[in-house]
Amino acid sequence: MLELLYWLDLFGVIVFAFSGALMAGRYQLDPFGVAVLSAVTAIGGGTIRDVILQTPVFWVKNPIYLYVILATAALTIIFIRCPKRIPKRFLLVSDAFGLALFAVLGTEKALTLGAAVPVAILLGMVTGVAGGMIRDVLCNVIPMILRQEIYATAAILGGVLFTFLLYLGLPEHIAIIGAILGALALRLAAIYWRVTLPAFEIIDHDESNK
Amino acid sequence: MLELLYWLDLFGVIVFAFSGALMAGRYQLDPFGVAVLSAVTAIGGGTIRDVILQTPVFWVKNPIYLYVILATAALTIIFIRCPKRIPKRFLLVSDAFGLALFAVLGTEKALTLGAAVPVAILLGMVTGVAGGMIRDVLCNVIPMILRQEIYATAAILGGVLFTFLLYLGLPEHIAIIGAILGALALRLAAIYWRVTLPAFEIIDHDESNK
Amino acid sequence: MLELLYWLDLFGVIVFAFSGALMAGRYQLDPFGVAVLSAVTAIGGGTIRDVILQTPVFWVKNPIYLYVILATAALTIIFIRCPKRIPKRFLLVSDAFGLALFAVLGTEKALTLGAAVPVAILLGMVTGVAGGMIRDVLCNVIPMILRQEIYATAAILGGVLFTFLLYLGLPEHIAIIGAILGALALRLAAIYWRVTLPAFEIIDHDESNK
């Protein structure tokens, strides 16, 4: 069980590190700059979660995460010689995988450490969303959570589904896999078929800056 | 006394959650996106304060804050059908209430936990200012603290006034109310009558980006 | 030895506070707004380091840092009547000093507190980089780490050099001075002679926002 959590967590770190490195390809960054943007994206959310829970930060306890990020950034630089030709959807989809994984794993960790259910779901969402948010803010781009349909919603669905499946009495690894698939399906549906929720009304753009 | 602090704190959370939801109305966000921007604005400052003080984060201990934010976001969405028609001053004034409340309550909490006076005043300011700052940074808008007159100043006045009134020997609840009113009055004066302090000179805009 | 660390740390706080105040001169900020931007720049990185290490935050333990920042901001306002005439390089060079100092001192602190070497180097980089990053994000400017050559790289070099010199058996104060000079030399070389590393390829700007 712990094995499964660990591998899923590493996989989430890899996909987010990859999305950070892809984003870095839009700026003329040297390799260390790419590695930093990868790292911020991959461990930003989990760091905030652990700091808020006041539990030892996961990558301080276990530096293997840092090596995985370095390797991901290096492989991205080596194999993707021309980030320009990577379709934008690639970045969106790798971000969606990280979002779904981290939202569920973050909820799991918070529950394990004794947090109340709504707190755990919020911290799960933070784990899934914050790394990409910092990546976008540093790049001076409006974060996906404000631009994309069903972004926070998919992360929250992951946490809700996980606690619900646990509540139904399913074993934890089933609940984790089920919740990740649910959140991922919703987010991919939003990307591919433009599934949306009704939006809170918008004001026109001229006024929005003054 | 604890009662009073608690209600003022909840009131601060409500006005900041409202200001976050209003800001969200400028983007085409689904309801969960609105709730997230509300939450970040309402609990961002207090979270940073508690993390720096290394005391349990207030909403992790007491999830009622999260329900209050959800309710505020929901009511804002339901009753404000057209955020476009809300005058901009509304956002500024609700932000001013949150700023004054949180600056004083944050100073009080830090002092209670044994922080030195200048540390407590700085953490009070952080409590009042940081939530709105994160809201503005996420929305890619220059934060109010850099655009608005007498913003940090009002927050600092709140903390200074509170410690000064305590030092004079006034009972704590009088000191709290007095300091909140003082900070609020200064900030509202800046909004309505454009009270200002002399500014550090400005350079012309062409140079500022290169 | 502790003496030396302390003075270097204060010097780093002063140069970063100065760079924050200079940046504030580009906005029409009142004196307290200037002080806040100074403080965020000067103590942002070390605060994040201490929070992640879950050790008491340095300026909460020792408020002298806050007085030093206030004094630096006040002197900058008083003596630099016209921030417009300050050449841009001034800001870059003071930022470089802060970067080199904090990267090495941050690595030292993390190692002392028992962090693994790669964790310590990463936290050193965060100490050197994060304050300026928050300053730039608040001012809605792309952070230097994404715009400047050899920025993260110089910070990482500082941490690597420090652990390497320690590993060679040099006394700690020599290792600190040597590592600071190495990181500073690399960063200044990047500023003055445009030393660069090969960049990860860039995509054209039209696509980068959509």
Automatic annotation (TrEMBL), chains A, B, C:
One of its GO terms (cellular component) is plasma membrane. Pfam families: Gly_transporter. The chain crosses the membrane at residues 6-25, 32-52, 64-83, 90-107, 113-138, 150-168, 174-193. This is Glycine transporter domain-containing protein. It comes from Cognaticolwellia beringensis. InterPro entries: Gly_transporter. It comes from the Bacteria. Keywords: Cell membrane, Membrane, Transmembrane, Transmembrane helix. Residues 6-79, 93-165 form the Glycine transporter domain. Belongs to the UPF0126 family. It is found in: Cell membrane. It is a multi-pass membrane protein. Its main location: membrane.
